[in-house]
Amino acid sequence: xxxxxxxxxxxxxxxxxxxxxxxxxxxxxxxxxxxxxxxxxxxxxxxxxxxxxxxxxxxxxxxxxxxxxxxxxxxxxxxxxxxxxxxxxxxxxxxxxxxxxxxxxxxxxxxxxxxxxxxxxxxxxxxxxxxxxxxxxxxxxxxxxxxxxxxxxxxxxxxxxxxxxxxxxxxxxxxxxxxxxxxxxxxxxxxxxxxxxxxxxxxxxxxxxxxxxx
Length: 214
Prior knowledge:
By secondary structure, the protein is an alpha+beta fold. The chain is built from 9 helices and 4 strands. A 4-stranded mixed β-sheet has the order 2-1-3-4, covered by helices on one side.
C-alpha cells in the first residue's frame, strides 16, 4: 500500500473512474484531489502544470506525474503489487488494447454525451433534449455492442477470465449509458454483454470507483 498516490479529477468522470477501478483492484491507497474542469469558478493554473491539456485525470506517485488514462492504468498495474490487470497472452493483451481504443474512439462520445447527457443529464438540469443527436448515436452504440459481444466470446470479462484494463475502460461508460432507457434496451439485446455488466458492476472496484450514494 502506498499513500503517495494522488489522482486529480472528479469522481463523475468516466476516465477518473477507470483509474480508480485499477487502484481499487490492486489495493493501492490513494487520495482523490478534486479538480472540476467544467466549473467556471475553477482556478486551473496549478493543475495545468500537471496536465497541459486540462483534462482529467492526472496522476502523481511520489514525484512521478502522468496523464492519459491508458498510460496511468498500465503504470498502476506494473508499478504496484496485487492482481494482474493485463492478460499474460499476447493475443489477449492485444484484444484488451483494442477494446480500450474502441471505447475511446467509438463509444465514449456516443454513449455518454449523445445518449446519457441528452436523455438523462440535460432533463435533470432543465435543459432541452436533442432527440436527433440520440437517434444518430444509437446505431453507433449498437455497432459497439455487437463488436464487444463478438470479441469477448464466452469468457467472463472483456479480454480475459478476470477484469483487465479493458473492463475498467468500458465499465464507466456503461454506467452512464444504462441510466437511459435506450441504453438498457440496447444492452439487453446482447446477453453476453449484459452478463458482463452484471459481473463488473458487482465488483468492489466498481463500488469504490463510484463512491457512496450521494
